[in-house]
Amino acid sequence: MEKNISIIIPAYNEESRIEKTLDGLKDIKLINQIILVDDGSSDKTYELASKYEFVKAYKLPKNMGKGYALNYGLSKALEKSDIIGFLDADLKETSREVEKLIIPILTEDIDVTIAKFPKAKRKGGFGLVKKLARYGVKYLTGEDIQSSLSGQRVFKKQVLMEFEKIPFGYGVEVGMTIDILRKGYKIKEVEVNMTHNETGRNLKGFIHRGKQFMHILLILISRILKR
């Protein structure tokens, strides 16, 4: 039986990259629909995405955050979709690698796939956020998931139905990974050649990673308390 596959892309001020990201997806025949949720951008992200006939673009009236945008996209996708993927808007042409995430869901006994990116080309932080996420997931589930921070994921519909809504904040991916594993679903990390807009070793980058660290720490504490 053929599966209906949807991809949800939350986007905020991505006019310089969104066209290339969508171009990378246009020839993937496995995908039935692409839902782009513009999270209150102040640039032309929505206008550029709306030009693509194969994209259903929606614009939120103000910036609500990635979690809200994903939930909005899910409200449009869940009814008719069997498989749903999340992709970031800044992948550019490497978005085409999502096909590698879809295939194991179709051909193997796998419920969720997570993109495992190549090593970053430039130095970012000191690896503290990644280590916290990786070892936190392992401590709470026994599974060694190296890419639990990755937002590039594909799910069987029934997995997403376990959640009333996608959690908000920078710890969303880590929290979902823990919850999915605890419910007995199978996750597979898939190596991809994706690239995205990396944060460097500057003040903005360190502030971002500091927020990530605290959000993930709070998520881990909340999951420990639920044990």
TrEMBL record:
Domain Glycosyltransferase 2-like: 6-132
Molecular function as annotated in GO: transferase activity
Keyword Signal among UniProt keywords: no
InterPro entries documented for this protein: Glyco_trans_2-like, Glycosyltransferase_2, Nucleotide-diphossugar_trans
Record field: transmembrane: none
Coiled-coil regions listed in the entry: none
Keywords: Transferase
Protein name as catalogued: Glycosyl transferase family 2
Species of the source: Alkalithermobacter thermoalcaliphilus JW-YL-7 = DSM 7308
